[in-house]
Amino acid sequence: MRTNQTRFPENFLWGGAIAANQAEGAYLEGGKGLTTVDLLPIGKDRFSLMLGNVDSLELKDGVYYPSHEAIDFYHRFKEDIALFAEMGFKCLRLSIAWARIFPNGDDSAPNEEGLQFYDQVFDELLKYNIEPVVTTCHFDVPINLVEKYGSWKNRKMIEFYENYTKTIFERYKEKVKYWMTFNEINMLLHAPFIGAGIVIKDDEEKKQVLYQAAHHQLVASALAVKACHEIIPNGQIGCMLAAGATYPYTCHPNDIWEAIDKDRESYFFIDVQSRGEYPGYAKRYFKENNLQIRMEKDDEEILKNHTVDYIGFSYYASRCASTDPEVLSQLAEGNIFASIKNPYLNESEWGWQIDPQGLRVTCNQLHDRYQKPLFIVENGLGANDVLSDEGSINDDYRIEYLKSHFIEMAEAIEDGVDILGYTSWGPIDLVSAGTGEMKKRYGYIYVDKDNEGNGTLKRIKKKSFYWYQDIIQSNGENL
Fold it and tell me: Quick one: signal sequence residues (predicted)?
């Protein structure tokens, strides 16, 4: 039950979120270049590759790569956007594929066909008064930049990314007001290949490589903020964090400190992007681990002067931390993050712990820490939806999941947290980033496709489609 009949702000941005590499398909059409995610197969090898254990940067014969067709949003975006409009979306979070604009990443001129594609997508959204919320880089570094430069290990990436972002800001300045730089930037530490195109070599010191790459991304992000503010004066640009509060497993002080430490692994990035400087705990970590972060003379000034306007984040689950070896032996997988099982929570089919109140906790923690507007840009339930003989999908479990999270989001607003909007992950079924599966479905709209790539790609409205339509129409009053 809601303790307060909180009204969502009048201009609250209800919508959904997709990513180019999980939805578009057409992986080499329209002049697009190959990207990191295009090399990730479905199956047992996917996770190891995501972690940076990459033996080849070429496609292999006889291997199914789910991103190559995905759900064919590239050819079907008008149909899909019409369905989003029918639900009443106020916004759609989506990403631009870097390699559609600069196929090699270091090209001297952009690919006009790629630019025109996103012109068409944004025009279609605006036709229905749906605000585009655009992530500039969502897990898709052009492969050429990995091969030639080592991706974000190399400082040259800052120049390539700055050129790319300036190009899209100039092109879409009349169409896009809301931007984000790097999707789940903290994923760089946990899954470096999918997060940042980083291949870890046997002779490299992993922590040194990752934190140097992080510095390059942080400077690049700040330069993108600078460019956005100069080119789109009425625009807003944020960062994006894979969030989820970490609870101490017990009240033992060691567990409490471990939880703080685990949260700081992620907050580190947003501390820099939002506050404009490296926090003291990070400097201590670098010193104690003998990490030498190479900076150029203007880097600190760039970080300080170009902080983000809002904090975008994903929330799927909370996590638990312990220092007890016996407890640590019972780690549960959940998304990329392994966590101790919380005995007070239920789990999804994929072992993700379901914690609606954790969303309120996370919102309050982020608001208390940064005092900036928040944007919940990913949240949802992956489930194996079953199509009935009559051709319908009764996904009451998804409705219950979302309703419980919306209630806690309303409580966070009542707590005084400034939340710009909410975009549920995968409003239409798409390829899972973590597993490459299609059967791990999040959408309000079913897509007829299976894990092997078979199916008609027909779109079918689920029961949750009409439920979310009602939530948006009532601006959350009908919870």
Answer: none
